[in-house]
Design goal:
With about 375 residues, the protein is mainly β. It is built from 1 helix and 31 strands. The chain has 2 domains: about 80 residues, Sandwich (Immunoglobulin-like), CATH 2.60.40; about 240 residues, Neuraminidase, CATH 2.120.10.
């Protein structure tokens, strides 16, 4: 065979081989790959407590022609078309995460992973204004204990320590003779009764300070005063009206504050204590920094530091609140249920306990 012909045959065979090889490469199906993180740790079978934030990443998926589409199904009714992101699981259950990818040739592949979300190990304390009792509940709403109170109209409660002992404090309006009672949270036995320094004690919270130890915060619904009390003997350490709350304009300009108190709690953030307060008149959530002035005994400055958050109107009226796991837990009075709210948006997140025991839940503490 002439040299030219042989060269032509070789070229033809080479071209055919390249075409066949190219077809083989193009025929390779895409591969879906899921990477998940919980708390900065990679996991394939992830486990955590509700609300559980899971970081997801599908960029390890690959195909010769390239991945052009991502579709995540998180197993809880929510989906995403992003390659990476974060998803929060609100309720305790086992979820299957499914990632479907598609390449430029229209072919798809799927991968799955499992996320197990556990209920938070907390105890929910509420009091019932109509029945004059305290309920101890698990996070599912089951009644663990019921403690009758010696006084009527309980409006607020909180757990606080005296020395190394934890007590449950309950503020009772008691038909115009307000009382603050201290009971054993394990047995319900009455330990001490104090005259409440208010006409209509509504809400209670507690915070621990180096100067005085554990302190109670109580709001009087009649005068709108906020009392700071010593937890051992219920002595008044300080009294705050709306005029003593400082804020950077326009935070407090024209704002009614301590007018219709509907929620109070205390938390620590980066070593500093904060009061969280719900004002019914504006349906807003306020974050108030507590700044002790060490040079002057019993003088603490309260300052509203950030713009208040507008809460969903359908949550009101609110009987009480508690900050838990980065959420605001509120008692919706009309629905008599416990609901989680996003403190940054004011939006309803989920229902924690759809029906609280009793007839008129009031105070709330979660530990």
């Amino acid at each position: 065979m002439p040299r030219t012909a042989r060269s032509f045959v070789r070229l033809a065979l080479l071209a055919t081989t390249l075409v066949l090889l190219g077809g083989c490469f193009r025929s390779q199906a895409p591969v879906a790959n899921i990477t998940l993180w919980v708390g900065g740790t990679t996991c394939h079978a992830c486990v955590g407590t509700a609300p559980l934030v899971v970081e997801y990443d599908g960029t390890a998926s690959h195909a010769p022609s390239g991945i052009v589409l991502y579709h995540w199904d998180f197993g809880d009714g929510h989906t995403s078309a992003e390659a990476t992101g974060y998803h929060t699981y609100a309720d305790a259950a086992e979820y299957t995460v499914t990632l479907t990818v598609m390449d430029a040739d229209g072919r798809s592949a799927t991968a799955t992973a499992v996320v197990s979300v556990q209920a938070p190990d907390v105890t929910v304390w509420i009091c019932d204004e109509a029945l004059a009792c305290v309920y101890k509940l698990d996070v599912g709403g089951a009644v663990l204990a019921t403690y009758p109170l010696p006084y009527t109209q309980p409006h607020g409660l909180t757990l606080a320590e005296v020395g190394q002992t934890e007590w449950l404090y309950v503020a009772c309006a008691n038909e115009g003779s307000p009382r603050l009672v201290r009971i054993d949270p394990e047995t319900g036995d009455l330990d001490e009764t104090f005259n409440a320094p208010s006409t209509d004690p509504l809400l209670l919270a507690s915070a621990d300070f180096a100067q005085w130890g554990e302190c109670l915060w109580l709001i009087d619904g009649f005068t709108g005063n906020l009392y700071m009390l010593d937890s051992a003997a219920a002595w008044i350490l300080d009294v705050y009206g709306a005029g003593r709350l400082r804020g950077v304009p326009p935070v407090l300009v024209g704002e009614p504050l301590l007018t219709d108190p509907q929620g109070l709690d205390c938390t620590w953030d980066d070593g500093d204590p904060y009061l969280w307060y719900v004002e019914g008149a504006t349906e807003r959530l306020y974050k108030i920094r507590i700044t002790p002035r060490e040079a002057i005994v019993r003088d603490i400055q309260l300052q509203v530091e950030t713009d208040p958050v507008d809460l969903s109107a359908d949550l009101f009226p609110i009987a009480a609140m508690d900050m838990q796991h980065g959420e605001v837990w509120v008692i919706e009075s009309d629905a008599n249920r416990l609901t989680a709210v996003d403190p940054t948006t004011g939006a309803r997140v989920r229902t924690i306990i759809p029906e609280l025991p009793g007839s008129r839940a009031s105070g709330l503490d979660v530990r």
